[in-house]
Amino acid sequence: MKRIITNGITNLEPLAGSSEWYWGTDYASGDLHEAEDAFRSGHPIRKNQLLLVHSPEGKVYEPVSPGAGQYLGRPAYHDGQVVLLLVDFPKGEIHILAFHQTNGTTQQLAVLPLSIADDCCNLMLETSPLMLIRSGHNNRIQLLWPERRDFAVEENEYFAFLDENRLYTTVWYEDPDYREELLVRDYDTGELLERIPGNFRRMPDGSSLSWCPPC
To answer: Quick check: helix, strand or coil at residue 44?
Structure first.
């Protein structure tokens, strides 16, 4: 057993796509969207602390400490690196940063105007490939970076992953029993190509798994 000192962060989650990294935050001002609401309302933002823990040795990293008016969202794992999402509300900027484990530093991958997103509701990094998206808000999936796409989707439909020209999404229903489907859409047009009954899960190594109910 290893004892991990997290300074009050009580929950660590596996970082999707990696079998070595875990992450946690204290949600000092709620999630990213709630922090934005506080800033828009003229209230001060209590900056959040985000920690990374590497397995198996259990070493703890704090990759970046937000400044005044800055807030961290959910990180992602891409191409062997942890990638961080930081929003600077006073400057109206979105920062995407790569964390280098060897020296504990971060490298800026992109600085984007916050205006590219209507708001920070469901604003997150996704893979693969690495992209910034808003998913499942107002029945739309919006890809904001590195390219812009906007898809009209069904209610309760969310981004899953992108495989070349096929956009995979998940959708859930209660009619009346709960069930899920995996949808395949054309990445260029958003046209629905296939509807697969069953559940989707991202595996620790970044691969995807879908299991279907008996026919």
So the answer is: coil
